[in-house]
Amino acid sequence: xxxxxxxxxxxxxxxxxxxxxxxxxxxxxxxxxxxxxxxxxxxxxxxxxxxxxxxxxxxxxxxxxx
Length: 66
Description:
Number of helices: 2
Distance between the termini: 71 Å
Helix content: over 70%
Strand content: under 5%
Structural class: mainly alpha
């Protein structure tokens, strides 16, 4: 169990740990954002195409009896 400390000590520890974090640069953030957007568009197009194909196959199979 964690030992209890006063809020001032806690904030000092938080500040100390935050200073150890390696923050990404603006360029790294922009590249990651663009990569995520490209993958989202790719996934959306893939699932749209798969949905259309499955719908077409089902309508073909279900309308064969008519």
